[in-house]
């Protein structure tokens, strides 16, 4: 069983999808720690309800690395974590940090593209499909190897919150799926590209 840490900043529905999958025996791993950079993140309550250790750490990747190493964490999941990771944390966990992003990378991603900002940009551009991406985290924001993407038709939607809701349904499926694949050793990175084996 791999040891997992999840980093959040908000409501934690993506975190909840992993908690639920672990409790259902769908992931060969256990969530050992949930870290938030925001004290009031509701996701902290979700973790505490599930009996998972929580911590609030703001702008201190040195401390985060020490907490992860102390707990022998194997996989770090960014589940709505809205801060940019420093190279200190990324280098400590090469291809061991994954992120969920609410668009089809490389579209609508990078600095400033998070949460509802993504769906507002998608609506304003008038694209007819959106979706979600799970990728490894690198120094380039949202530029790491893509592990899985699923698209959805949004041509019938005209509100960003409705696009968000449809994309979240995808997120809540593919994030636990990818975490499970990682825990089973079925994700490899070759020549900068991730593949499921
Ligand atoms: N080094 C990396 N750090 C992070 C990555 C990454 O790929 N490499 N992924 C992001 C997640 N993310 C999108 O998926 C993302 C998060 C936050 C931002 C952003 O611009 N944040 C603002 C502050 C937002 C706030 O605190 O309200 C900022 O830093 O100015 C962009 C993309 C996680 N980190
Ligand atoms: N760029 C990162 C980003 O925008 N992440 C997004 O934050 C939301 C967190 O929701 P949650 O708090 O309900 O899990 C999710 O939609 C996730 O894709």
Automatic annotation (TrEMBL):
CDD domains: FMT_core_GART. Pathway: Purine metabolism; IMP biosynthesis via de novo pathway; N(2)-formyl-N(1)-(5-phospho-D-ribosyl)glycinamide from N(1)-(5-phospho-D-ribosyl)glycinamide (10-formyl THF route): step 1/1. The active site is at 101 (proton donor). It catalyses: N(1)-(5-phospho-beta-D-ribosyl)glycinamide + (6R)-10-formyltetrahydrofolate = N(2)-formyl-N(1)-(5-phospho-beta-D-ribosyl)glycinamide + (6S)-5,6,7,8-tetrahydrofolate + H(+). Signal peptide: none annotated. (6R)-10-formyltetrahydrofolate binds at residues 59, 99. Pfam families: Formyl_trans_N. The record marks 142 as: Raises pKa of active site His. It is an enzyme of class 2 (transferase). Keywords: Purine biosynthesis, Transferase. One of its GO terms (molecular function) is phosphoribosylglycinamide formyltransferase activity. Its EC number is 2.1.2.2. It comes from the Bacteria. Residues 3-179 form the Formyl transferase N-terminal domain. NCBIfam families: PurN (TIGR00639). PANTHER family: PHOSPHORIBOSYLGLYCINAMIDE FORMYLTRANSFERASE. Belongs to the GART family. Catalyzes the transfer of a formyl group from 10-formyltetrahydrofolate to 5-phospho-ribosyl-glycinamide (GAR), producing 5-phospho-ribosyl-N-formylglycinamide (FGAR) and tetrahydrofolate. This is Phosphoribosylglycinamide formyltransferase. It comes from Massilimicrobiota timonensis. The gene is purN.
């Amino acid at each position: 069983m791999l040891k997992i840490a999840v980093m959040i900043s908000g409501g934690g529905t993506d975190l909840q999808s992993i908690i639920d999958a672990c409790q259902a025996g769908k992931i060969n791993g256990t969530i050992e720690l949930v870290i938030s950079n925001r004290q009031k993140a509701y996701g902290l309550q979700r973790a505490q309800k599930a009996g998972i250790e929580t911590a609030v750490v703001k702008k201190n990747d040195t401390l985060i690395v020490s907490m992860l190493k102390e707990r022998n964490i194997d996989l770090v999941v960014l589940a709505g974590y809205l801060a940019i990771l420093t190279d200190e944390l990324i280098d400590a966990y090469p291809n061991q940090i994954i992120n969920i992003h609410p668009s089809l990378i490389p579209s609508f991603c990078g600095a400033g593209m998070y949460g509802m900002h993504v769906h507002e940009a998608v609506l304003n551009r008038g694209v007819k499909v959106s979706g979600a991406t799970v990728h490894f985290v690198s120094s380039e924001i949202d530029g790491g190897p893509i592990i899985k993407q699923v698209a959805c038709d949004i041509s019938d939607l005209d509100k960003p919150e409705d696009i968000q809701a449809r994309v979240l349904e995808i997120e809540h499926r593919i994030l636990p799926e990818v975490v499970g694949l990682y825990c089973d050793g079925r994700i490899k990175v070759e020549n900068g590209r991730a593949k499921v084996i």
